[in-house]
Amino acid sequence: MSKAKTLAQLNHLSLNTLMQTLEIEYIDYGDDYLVAKMPVTSKVYQPNGILHGGATVALAESVGSAASHLFFDNSEFEIRGIEISANHIKSVKEGFIFATARILHKGRTTQLWEIKVTNSQNQLVSLCKLTTIALKRNNF
Hints:
The protein has 140 residues and is of the alpha+beta class. It has a single domain (3-139), classed as Hotdog Thioesterase (Thiol Ester Dehydrase, Chain A). The protein contains 3 helices and 6 strands; from the N terminus they run ααββαββββ. It has a 6-stranded antiparallel beta sheet with strand order 1-2-4-5-6-3. The radius of gyration is 15 Å and the shape is globular.
């Protein structure tokens, strides 16, 4: 499948979800990474007019989960997030933020993702870690 079709499919899966509400869009991927972007508007502000850390974490978990969907056999396994942590480094008031998920550990049962969130100037905004678990589909 072409890169454009794969990204279109990932973005289609976001319809009627939190990802659509936050306007998260998957924009690039390679052999070991997936990139998404999200606009920073008042919709994702905390009361003092800057990006809410929870919105940043939602972006990070979304791109890490989508990367799991992209890089794992979804016919046999269902991937679930089991832990996420975030260190927020820099505030953002406008523009876009970009999240790049890269696998650090690809075990048969658990996986560890590093998600770097940057601003439009490629400055680090947040550094997140997501742990996912692969569950056999017959467990549902």
